[in-house]
Amino acid sequence: MNRVRLFLLVSxxxxxxxxxxxxxxxxxxxSGIRTLSRSDAINIFMGRYRKLPNGGLALPVDLVSLKxxxxxxxxxxxxxxxxxxWARLVFSGEASxxxxxxxxxDVHHLLAHNPNVLGYVDxxxxxxxxxVVLTLDE
Amino acid sequence: xxxxMTRLLLLFRTRLALRTTAIILLIVALLGGLFxxxxxxxxxxxxxxxxxxxLEELLTTVERTAQIACFLADERMAQxxxxxLLSNNIVNAVTIRASDxxxxxxxxxxxxxxxxxxxxxxxxxxxxxxxxVNVCRMTVEPDQDEVDLKVAQASIFLGAALLLxxxxxxxxxxxxxxxxxTRPITGISHRxxxxxxxxxxxxxxxxxxxxxxxxxxxxxxxxxxxxxxASLGQERRLRVEREVEERRYRAIFDNVEAGLFELDGxxxxxxxxxxxxxxxxxxxxxxxxxxxxxxxSLAPGDASIETASGRERDEKREGQREYLCEVTQEGGSRxxxxxxxxxxxxxxxxxxxxxxxxxxAAETAAQMAVTDPLTGLGNxxxxxxxxxxxxxxxxxxxxxxxxxMMLDFDHFKQINDTHGHHAGDRVxxxxxxxxxxLLRQRDxxxxxxxxEFVVLLEGCERHDExxxxxxxxxxxxxxxxxxxxxxxxxxxxxVSLGIATLGIDTDSPQQAxxxxxxxxxAAKRAGRNTWRFYATEMAKT
Lengths: 138, 541
Known about the structure:
By secondary structure, chain A is of the alpha/beta class. In chain A, 38% of the residues lie in helices and 18% in strands. Chain A has a single domain (19-136), classed as Periplasmic binding protein-like II (D-Maltodextrin-Binding Protein, domain 2), CATH 3.40.190.10. Chain A has helices at residues 2-16, 38-45, 67-75, 79-89, 104-113, and strands at residues 23-27, 59-63, 99-101, 117-122, 131-136. Helices cover 51% and strands 21% of the residues of chain B. Chain B is built from 13 helices and 18 strands. The A-B interface holds A 39, 42, 46-48, 74-75, 77, 85, 88-89, 92, 94-95 and B 65, 68, 71-74, 76-77, 127-130, 133.
């Protein structure tokens, strides 16, 4: 039994360690966007704005694996709340949720090919070809 | 219409319970109206506050949806929220206005009210993701009609409750007043009206009221009854005493010999006893109260003698007046003394006495005092009196002169000595009669003593007049005086006279007497049966 407890404790510590890392909102350097306010990020990712500050169409992309951490950091809500929010808007048609990507590579791919795409990655995943416009502390 | 009204007023006037109730109800109604007004106001405020709270709650219910709708500027969703709010009957209008001023949604169930006392509820809606950032403002107007309806309902309820309370109080007051005030009072009043006070019966207080105000009232009434009975008894006793007095007085009044009468303030005779009526010849049947006699007509003012009765003159109340009056009746004239003294204001009492006898006796006595019993002429006292009167007269009218004549019969003493005193008296009576027959009414003759006479000739100063008189007297004396002693004896008598005149010879009556005396002696010395007027040389002897 003692071993099980010890294992759980260690596991929790292990889980807690990555939380220390930041989440970076990134764009294609060609988008012309140098920086993005937290508010702008919220408005874009929550479907309020469909345009980037520079006037271009905004295409936010969710990284499924990082999604809970991202929204916790951005709007302090859990995934259920975010899902509930979008579910409410399905029939309205006024706004639609960001495109869902299963892996960081997909996100990278989308970012690299479309300057209008907005994505987020873990700060440990460094992509030098992309521009960080907002750093979210966790 | 009028009749029931007057009957109601009559009831109000006559029924204590009803009046009390009406007054209490009026007060309660006024106070109740005041309280109702306050309560309705409070209720209205309360309803408004409740509405506000409910509106706030409604807004809280829809806030999350509204947050999203505003965040996304989703008009359809905002409209949905608006409709949801409007479906509540307390909501009159809803406006959702985005932060940039554009109206996202608006709705209204009733018409716009120009004047509303209700303030709208405003809720700032923040972003669902950024708590500090407002995305829109929701404005909700409460429904005035709904508030009014609620207030009206509350008022009706309160009013009905108050009315019921009024009715309850009214009934209770009527019952209580009737039971605890009216009924005991009615009972006491009933018993009081049946009470036989003369027998000393007392009023009994109802058992339950023995110690309260009604009991006190009954006690007071009993004290009053006691006083009444006492004063009634005293009154009755006094009346009996008074009746006895009255009878006694009446008996005296009717049977006393003195005349008794009463006068009023105007001097009218209001009553008189039989004796008085007899004195003044008033018919027994005459009702003086209805047909009074003026006192002045009985006692003429000039016949009155006022007596101050030892009091001060101005103290007229105590003053007693005496009147003397002469009443001429069939039997002749009678003198009556009337004594009047005040009984009270405007009422006088008088006593009348027949003083005829007394007056006659007094007059006779006075006459006797100045009369010579033998001759019926004046005596010395009468002469002195008459001389004094003459002196007074002379002082007042000095231009009028009076003569004094002294007479002395010659050798009269011999008649007495020879024929006895009886014969002397007879002679004196004869000459007195003779002399009186010669004199005027206003002259005065007196016998001063023995055979000495004096005559006062009033207003006579001329010697010739006097001499005429003397000569006539002497002529009379020429005739012998029969003695009528059976022997046929006759006596001849001479007289010596002396005369003095007051106003010529002297101014003093006493001196005039002396002078006449001297003149008379001068006549005697001159040979008797002659006369002499006073002359100044007589004074020397």
